[in-house]
Amino acid sequence: MIKSLALAKASFRTFSDMPEQHTQQRFLIGQLTFDPNSRELSSATETLYLEPQAYQLLSLFIAADQGQLSRDQMIEQLWAGRVVSESAINKSVSLLRKAFAQLDPASPYIETLPKVGYRLCQTLTAETPQQQKVDPVTEPAITTQTPAPAVAAVKSSGFKTKLGLGLLWACPLLFFVWWFFITLAPAPEQLTTPYMTAPVPVSHAQGVEYDLSLSADGSVLLYFSSQAEEKQLLLQQGKDQLQLLSEDNDISTAALSPDALQILWVKQNPQGCVVEWFLLAKPEQKKTVALCNTDAVVKLSWQNNSKGFYLRDRADKTQPYALSHYRLDTTAKQQITNPLSSESPTGELAFAESDDGKKLAVLRYLENQQTLLLILDSSSFVVLQQKILPLQATQIDWLGNQLLLSKGAELLQYSFDTDQLEFLFYTGRTVQSLAVVQQQIYYADYELDADIWQHDLSTNKARIRIGSSKIDRMPRVNHKGDLAFLSQRHGKDQIWLQPVDQNEYLLADLPGVPAFVRLQWSPDGESLIFSKDGALWQLTVASGQQRVLIAPEHQVEVANWIADGSGIIYSSQQSGDWQLWQLDLNTAATTQLTTQGGYSGYLLQGQLYFSKFHQDGLFQLDLTTGEEQVLIADFNKINWLNWSLSQGQIYYYQPDQGIRQYQLQSTENSLLLATPERFVHHYAIENQQLFYVKAGLPKGDIYKLVPAGGKK
What we know:
The protein is built from 6 helices and 56 strands. It is mainly β and 712 residues long. A hairpin with a 5-residue loop joins strand 44 (579-584) and strand 45. Helix 1 crosses helix 2, helix 2 (52-63) crosses helix 4 and helix 5 (150-170) crosses helix 6. The two termini are 41 Å apart. It holds the Pfam family Trans_reg_C. It comes from Rheinheimera soli. The chain crosses the membrane at residues 163-181. This is DNA-binding winged helix-turn-helix (WHTH) protein/Tol biopolymer transport system component.
């Protein structure tokens, strides 16, 4: 066993140099089992999916001699030798210790060695495939989705994990097929790819580097660098030669021309949005070459001949993004795409011109986590080819005659000629932007987290209510103080619950395909409703049971309870445009309430208070007389998901101000809380307690992938 463990550790050490590579080995650590292939740490009754940092650290412990790591080794292998704080190291160890303690609280697993580092202090044994139990596989029955309470869910999760692992070791071929259809690519070690060398760090600053663009020969790099509230636009020539171009926070994005002589950037603030052009040799001679909209995340990219550019923009947040082409010599504009909102709610995501300048690739987001890939002729902008990809790609560039796509932390290669989508590399963090020069792939990655804060309005004091290294959002509180929220702790959106004075736990997985949902408590505080894939669902907290209240064909979007619990007000496009409808829970009858638009509404004493999808303002409709009036004129559309009406008070968010309170009886309008730092527009108010989401500081760097044998 000692010899087999040494061989396994050596094999694991080879794979641990590259994030997320699959091994054919599991390890017994004390009373627990670690599966590097699925990133799961398991006890006899519970399984945890390890967060990336905890997974990487445990991988290093297993590969290390005598299970011992110094702090210098951790810095070198976890952070690629970059300067990090003591707190960052301590946090990594703490995350792994927390996972061990949750599964086996009676045993220590990581020992601190003063002035040395840390050691894995439990017995480590390699588990061979022959030792792994194979459970019988039966055909699953088709059932309605009824998640069990938290404790039962943990046990079920452990059983399913064991069943899946048994199948994995008994039949590797089935696992390969399963993995292929999930990722649309072979597992990394089974794919012949030139990008299996370690990525080369290009930037080294603290904080995050993003929005990179390169010259055609790769010698000059432009990118943003941000730390805390400081934001810089940097030009990098060579490895260490940096030039500061701007520290203006109004510059939202920028791009370097392929000839490395020109800069385009977007200056964006509430007063306006412009695209400015200038020569690097004459930065003082800036010229406005296009106008854009303030209500958009504008993107731009150069033509490869450096004579024009492409701009992604939208009229307002109710419209999908479209793509336009601009010529610098004539300043002529030509809109080249016009996605319909019904076909593509978001519109154009990303775009890139081929190296020869003859083709333009465009990614367009579709519903149900699909992406439409379009290839246009760069002269006529006629669609030459198109393909629906069963994944949500977010970035694109050309890799020779093929296309390089990013999906989360994965880099994929797609060929129209063979209709093959292949895995290339796992970056470890989400890819924010990428560029390719002579088969060398540059990418900027990032990692985000978000915490839920609780602000006591009576004492004006705030504290973290929910904190983790993942994204926790959409807080919803009932009158008892129970907090429901969405979390991505297990790599997907799930509904979690933190009862008063208790720890949070997983309440339920979301049904259907991955997508954003909005939660709301019932008036009695016993259940939650949410819309998903057009249907309206109700989740009973005590049992964990989910049921459909309104079928998908009704196209439910935003749903709110009537205060007495007798029904639900919801928005739908079933009559053409967004209108509000009422569901009577006693009779199951539905009634259309608005005819001039409605998106999120509450019913109180015969009065409907509501917002509209395409129009700012909060409106009041008397259901008896049919008279409609504007109640709050400067009510911004950004309040679609979070504004609420409770006990005669309307709570809403006003950009550049904060969260406001409007009293229906007195019409007094006051500011409750100025916009918190890094505020995410998810909030809820109950019993003088304001819950809101605050994003953490993003982390990210720029790397270069060089084909094996290529120049670095």
